[in-house]
Design a protein that fits this description.
The protein is mainly α and about 180 residues long. It has a domain of about 110 residues. About 35% of the residues lie in helices and about 5% in strands. It has a three-stranded antiparallel β-sheet with strand order 1-2-3, with no helix packed on it. β1 and β2 form a beta hairpin. The radius of gyration is 22 Å and the shape is globular.
Length: about 180
């Protein structure tokens, strides 16, 4: 009986001195939801440069869009071509490159997006300046997302490391971007 009391007493003492689990704030929970959604909706597939020969994003450049060193593929009638890192494409629509989704104020989301503008862009398929989002961006998927999910994605993107990367630098026909 004494051993049982001793074990129970030690367990009670451990519980008393253990820190209470901290509840997540609403904004932390929203950011975590956004991170989850970015991961499952394929944002890294196009907006993150890849480790050569893989689909694994380069950790230092995640979600920074097309690197200036990535050439836009050549056009072939009736075909769609992608760069090796999957951040640039050419197809029947013309050329397209993956945007910088980091919060960099000069070249990323911080340059022209508020939460409201981000949601409007995802709902309409048009960037704030009125330019259509080009393939392969699956606009039809994002049009159907709930506002809370789009807000969570935007909240997460605002927390990642800002990366200065002008994705259109060096392009020969920027009017098709």
């Amino acid at each position: 009986m004494k051993a049982t009391i001793c074990v129970a007493s030690v367990f009670a003492l451990l519980l008393a001195v253990a820190p209470a689990p901290r509840a997540q704030s609403a904004s932390e929970s929203q950011v975590e939801r956004g991170k989850y959604l970015v991961g499952i909706t394929g944002c890294h597939d196009c907006h993150s440069p890849k480790v050569a020969g893989t689909m694994k994003p380069v950790p230092e450049t995640m979600l920074s869009g097309r690197p200036q060193s990535t050439k836009v593929p050549s056009a072939m009638p009736g075909e769609v071509h992608a760069s090796e890192d999957l951040t640039a494409w050419t197809g029947p629509w013309g050329q397209s490159v993956a945007s910088n989704l980091t919060p960099d104020p000069a070249t990323g989301l911080g340059m022209r997006y508020t939460e409201a503008k981000f949601i409007q862009t995802m709902r309409t398929g048009k960037k704030p300046e009125g330019v259509a989002i080009m393939p392969p961006m699956p606009v039809d998927v994002y049009v159907n997302m709930k506002d809370d999910d789009l807000k969570a994605i935007f909240a997460y993107l605002k927390t990642i490391k800002p990366i200065r990367n002008a994705v259109r630098a060096g392009l020969t026909s920027p009017s098709k971007q």
